[in-house]
Amino acid sequence: MILEHETLLHKRYQIRENLGQGGMGSVYHAIDENLSVDVAVKENLFTTEEYARQFRLEAVILANIRHPNLPRVSDHFIIAGEGQYLVMDFIEGEDLRQRMERVGILPENEVILIGAAMCDALSYLHARKPPILHRDIKPGNVKISPDGHIFLVDFGLAKVYQGNQATTTGARAMTPGYSPPEQYGTARTDTRTDIYSLGATLYAALTSVIPEDGLARAMDNAQLTPLRKRNPDVSRHLAAAIEKAMEVDPGDRFQSADDFKLALLNSKSMTQQLLGTYTVPPAPSESERKSDPSKKTENVLTHSTPPDEYAFVSPRKKQLERERRNRYFLIGALLAILVVGILGVMAFRPNSIPASMRRLFPFLPPVELTAIPTETTSITQIIPSENPIAATATLESLLIQTPVASPVDHAVIPTPFGADYLQVAYASTRTGVAQIYFTNIMSDQAIAVTNMPGGACQPSWSPDGSRLVFISPCGIKKDTYQGSSLFIINADGSGLKPLPTAPGGGDFEPAWSPDGQYIAFTSLRDGYMQIYSYEVDGGDVNRLVETAINKPARQPSWSPNGRQIVFAYQRVTTYELWIMSSLGSNEKQLFVSGDVLSNQYPIWSPDGDYILFSQRSVTEFTFPNLLSLKVGAGNSPLQIKMGVLSVEDVDYSPNGSWVAYESGGDRGYHVLYSTPSGANQARITEDVTFDDFDPAWRPIPKQP
Length: 704
Prior knowledge:
Blueprint: E1 8-9, E2 13-22, E3 25-32, E4 37-44, H1 49-63, E5 73-79, E6 83-89, E7 94-95, H2 96-103, H3 108-126, E8 132-133, E9 142-144, E10 150-152, E11 159-160, H4 191-207, E12 209-210, H5 214-218, H6 227-230, H7 236-245, H8 257-266, H9 286-291, E13 302-303, H10 315-348, H11 355-358, H12 395-401, E14 423-428, E15 435-440, E16 445-448, E17 457-461, E18 467-472, E19 485-490, E20 497-498, E21 507-512, E22 518-523, E23 530-535, E24 541-543, E25 553-558, E26 564-570, E27 575-581, E28 588-589, E29 597-604, E30 610-617, E31 625-630, E32 638-640, E33 648-652, E34 659-665, E35 668-674, E36 682-683, E37 692-697
Parallel strand pairs: 12-13
Antiparallel strand pairs: 1-2, 2-3, 3-4, 4-6, 5-6, 7-9, 8-11, 9-10, 14-15, 14-37, 15-16, 17-18, 18-19, 19-20, 21-22, 22-23, 23-24, 25-26, 26-27, 27-28, 29-30, 30-31, 31-32, 33-34, 34-35, 35-36
Helix pairs in contact: 3-4, 3-8, 4-7, 7-8
């Protein structure tokens, strides 16, 4: 039964309207009276004990989803005898079906961006442990917000995929045209089920026609109409990518959402964007629709053929039809080869045709005898004219002559050169396990420094730029590294030296002092994170900071003069920025940020005037922003608009004009650089198939 308007559900959610209804229940727009926010409530009317048990398990997993293209699940509950309910973000705007009905066939570039955003969401869901399948991707479940952001909504059918186990909870929903054959019960569903449905959704967006049903195609009762037959303006590469996603056999489809996304972007030579940054033009407002009749909803999405009207054809009849087509094709091919052969002889060897047959072809030229030359033909040598361009400047000369602009001049700052080594060390998983590389940002050539069996990451340069300190084992990027130790290595990969560690390890986040005598680092040797220093020449290890028991202190960063260390300290629920002397005394908090905002990854500017750090909320899912704090009493930090989704682990170039940082999220990390104000941004690492993180700009050796 559909809930009536203003019904108070679970003593908290006031129903406003019914957004949609299916065989398993309805989706409602409601108001959370506790928080005064709009929410979407998904209803499931299956209320058996087994359904309820599985629902609780899956609801908890869904509640941990955090992705910019997915709504958050904020609550779940069961009302005995009535149903199960999921509460999630209410996404305003139009869904893709409404958009298709409003404008008809969507532009190709817009469809690619929608597909890329949905692939990001699916990749995140499929990468969960265990994987999460959406199982009902269709235009009505792709939402476009008023600012053009793209969301995959309606998790009422989402199921946790437990390996080879069949789905035990909920009915399998089939949307004709969008559901693959296995979703009708012909086989177990897996992540490739969602790839098929997304391909069908993009097919409909490019043609305004729902594709032929997957089950009918699997039974040879229907064939998929080529996309370009319905819309010849679609590029061949894009059509091929979408049709591959819709293959009947899951083994013939893209095997991951990332593969599908890459094919979509490559079809139009579009570059990958950072997570959550794919957007499309939003729907026009109501006033715009009234003033412009062309923006009113007029088009209707149609089925290519109603699924229930597919006529049954016996297997024997289908086999005979295939054999007939094959015979016709073979005969036609032989005739074509014969005709081409005859025409070829006529065109290139007319003299080889017998005189008796030449009467049948009066248009052939008369037979002529070919004379054998008796003299050598002379060859005239052509000397090219002189190049009119007197001189051409090389790339190096242009770079040397170009002046370096002030860091605050956003309009004319060139790519950095000449001022320093131009080399940035970082960790990369390009070989499967993280290792340290360094790259010259002008050549984009990655040079391997380490080859540690357990991986290596978190590089920090010595002041003269000749050595690196790093941690190992470190297979992937993590928040902490239990069991890791510190190592020193020369920049050319020689002279590997392990540093002393406590039993069980747990040393990470190293930072070399400006005078090269000490390495500050975070250690778990006390059972919780504390900051220690290692004397490079003497080998002594000392604890620097004294905090309350089990209160973590981490991420040390030296001031340029080596007299102070800024670090992150978690007293209650959030990390705060604190400062102390290099000997571990005079500890004090830099500023108060409260119990909502957490501050980490501090780094000092080369002139000692500023501290950059990352800040994020601990009460809701947000990506870290970059803030700048001018060192001095009474100053408040200012946010820097970097133009990327997230900013962490920032490092200054030696001259202070540039910063390198990592940006990404749950699907991967990449290293970028820009001015400290966020201008002239560029990637240091381009490949998106592996993670790049922990950047460290190589310093310039000080002149004696």
